[in-house]
Structures are given as structure tokens and as C-alpha cells.
Amino acid sequence: MHHFFLTPEQIGGKSVHITGGDVNHIRNVLRMRPGEQITVSGGEDGKEYRCEIEKIEEDCVTAKIMWVEESGAELPSRVCLFQGLPKGDKMELIIQKAVELGAAEIVPMATKRAVVRLDAKKEETKRKRWNAISESAAKQSKRGIVPEVTRVMNFAEAVEYAKQFDKKLIPYELAEDMERTRELIAGIEPGESVAVFIGPEGGFDEQEIELARAAGIQPLTLGRRILRTETAGMTVLSVLMFHLEVGK
Length: 248
Prior knowledge:
The protein is an alpha/beta fold. The chain folds into two domains: 3-70, CATH 2.40.240.20; 79-245, SPOUT methyltransferase, trefoil knot domain (Alpha/beta knot), CATH 3.40.1280. It has helices at residues 21-29, 90-100, 120-140, 155-161, 178-186, 206-214, 229-245; strands at residues 3-5, 15-18, 37-41, 47-56, 61-70, 79-84, 105-110, 148-149, 153-154, 167-171, 194-198, 218-220. The strands form two sheets. Strands 6, 7, 8, 9, 10, 11 and 12 form a seven-stranded parallel sheet that branches. It has a five-stranded mixed sheet with strand order 1-3-4-5-2. Strand 7 (105-110), helix 3 and strand 8 (148-149) form a beta-alpha-beta unit.
């Protein structure tokens, strides 16, 4: 069943009104007709609305609300992925999979060892593309929200931004002791917010790790193998998803 994201203003007591690019998608791509069912999310209330299309017009699709239920697709904790800018189009894959695995926000980082450098114009173009990928992944995985991909931050800005999170983790290739990693993950309680820092292909600079430590960001190991940047984030998010959802 096709899923769409609306603003609270588009959801009434008995019906929803879909506007913008989704109208063309419903009319000309999906070729849906009145009587077909869809699901929509308002994003802010955590609810999913099962609806039946009533009317398809040039600039608006109207659907009546059949029933409402809690989305149930969100993790019990807000998890933010701080991702060092990777080469090529790897960021697109990382965003897609992070959204599927439950990340609530993605912060691209310009770190010392990152090869990629974006000027303002390129960043704006990339960010639009990244947020479109986030929305598409959120629809596919039936998320209750569309995770935002923020502006690109330098490492110091990202560390400062992460101060709002309850738990902060940074996988580091020189960290040791898997038991410590297990303890850090096990110590995260549902409801606590979590920041996960992932370096680019070259990893983190030692000075960045020291800055992170000073800010209370905990280094951990992901095992004996060196993981690619696009694998490391997925690994941590997968472990967190399993930990947070067991017994939910």
C-alpha cells in the first residue's frame, strides 16, 4: 500500500488533502483511482491514517479517513547519525539505509580527512537530493516521519550540536575491548536520545577523537575488522535497532 507524508494542516477530522508533487505521482505515475486505499502520516503526531481516495483533481487528491492507528514504525529513542562526508554517491546509500534502520536525523560532517569539499551551491543541491532520498526511504519503510538531512557541519559544530543527546558514541579503529562496546550499547535505555558519529573513508583524526572525548562522546570498537564508512553506520544502527526494539 502506498504511503504519503502530509503536514498537520492537510489532515482534517474526516478527510485528508494531498497537494504538491504527490498529486502527479498518484495521478500519472501510480495511476490510482477513487476507491483505492493509501496510508498517510502527519509526521508530528506519530499516527498513521488509513484512507480511501475519493477525488483526484489537477492539484489535489482528497481521501476519506477510514481509521487511525499509532504508526509503531519509530524507534523508542531518537537516533541521529553524524556521517563524515564520503566520496562519490555513497552518501545517498548511507541516507537510504539509515532511514530504513530508524535514524531520526542525519548530519553530514566535513571532517579533516574527508576528501569531499562542498561549496554553498553544491551543498544546497546535494541537500535537496539527500532529503528527497530520505523521504523516499521513509515512504518505502512506512516511517511515521521523514528524517531530516541537516546542513553540512564541521566536526566542532557537530560535537556542539550533539550535546543535546543523552548518549553519544563514536566508533574508532584504535578503540579496543568489545565488552566495553557491549556495555555502552546495553546502557542505552528506550527514550534516551543517541548520537552516532561515523568517520569518512580516512577515519577520524586523533585531534577529532580527543575533542569528542572531551565532549563526552564515547569511543567504541566494532570488532577486529576495519569497516567501510558506508558499513560502519549501518552496523551501529542495526545493533541499536535490535537493542531498542527487543521486548518493545
